[in-house]
Task: structure prediction
Amino acid sequence: MAASRRIRTEDLMKPGWRSFLLTLGLWYLLVTLYMAMGSSSRPLLEKYGFYTRYSWPNFLLSYLNIVWLVPRLLHHGRVGAYLSAATAALAAYVGIRYYNHVLQDPAMYTYFTRSGDQLVRVYLSTPEVVKSEIQKGLQFLLLSMAYRFILDRIVTERRISSLEREKLRADLAMLRYQLNPHFLFNTINDIYYLALIRSTHTADALLELSELLRYVLHTKEDRVGLDREVEHLRRFVNLHRFRFPDCHVSLEADTVTASAPWAIPPLILISFTENAFKHGEPGTEADPVRIGLRIEGGRLHYRVHNRVGHAPSKDAQHGVGLPNLKNRLELLFPGDHTLQTQLTPDGHFIATLSIPLQSL
Result:
C-alpha cells in the first residue's frame, strides 16, 4: 500500500500522460467540491460542462507550472528564466481566457447595476478584464507552486525514511555478522576441548552445533517465533553440558513457549547465556546458572544469573557480545527496552533484559 502511494505521488510530478490524467482527476475532484459549496440550481452535468469549457486554461497553467516550470527552472535556481517563462505562460493564459469569455461569451464579464427602477447590464472594459485575468492567473501559479513544493516535500521525506530503513537493515546485518563468528569461535573452542579429552560426546556436540548453525545461518527474517529462539537457547545449553557434564543449569521458559505465538528479533537472547558460560563458573547443584524468561504486559523479561570466574579473561572485558547486543537493541527498540547488568558483592553476575513483543 505504501509503495502504491509513493508511485502515485511521484507520477504526479513527472511530465507524461499518467501525471496529466492524475492531475486532471484531482482537478475535477476540486471542481466537484467547489460546486458542492455553491448555491447554483443548474443541473450537475450542465455545471461540469460549464467548468470544462471555461476552466481548462486554469488547469493547463497549473499543470505546466507543476511538471515543467517549477522543477526544471525554479528548483535549479534559474529564477530569472522561471519568471520569464511564467510571464509568457501567464500572457497566453490571459489571451485564451479573454478569447473564451469576451469573444465567445461576452456575458461572462458583466455585472448588473440598478438605474432607477431598472437593472442595467454593465460590461467590463478590456483593461478591467485583463487585470482580473492576470490576478486569477497569478493565483493559480502560486497555488500550483505551493502544490509542487508539497509534493517534493512528501517524496523527499519518503526517500529519507527509505534510506533510514535501509541503513537500519545494513547496521543490523553488520551486527549479526559480527555476532555469528563470535558465537562460532566460542562454540568451536568447547568442541575442541571435548576432542582433546577424547570425549565420547564429541560427535553429539558437532551434531548439536550443526543445528545451531542451521538456525544462525538460515534465519533471515527480521522476527522469528519466540519458541524458536528459546529452542536455540536450549541447544546452546545442551552443547555446553557436553563440555561440563556436571554443570547445573536452570532454564525456566516453559510458560513462555506455551503462551501465545510471539515474535522477537533472532539471536537476541544468546549473548547473556553465552557470557554466563564463557566468563562465569559452571553451575553447581547449590548454585546453578539460572536462566529465566517470562511474559508480562506484552513484554519479554529475560534474566540470567551466574557466579563469575575468579580471574575474568581479557575477552570478558573487551568482548563483542554485550556491546553488540546493546547496539542491536538501540536500533531495534530505541527508547523501548531495558538492559541492566550487575555484579553482586557475593560474586554473582546478573543480566536482565526487557523488550516488547510482537504477535506472530
Q: What stands out?
A: The first strand starts at residue 110 and ends at 115. Residues 1-7, 312-318 have pLDDT under 50 and may be disordered. Strands lie at 110-115, 118-123, 224-225, 249-252, 262-264, 289-296, 299-307, 338-343, 348-356, 358-359.
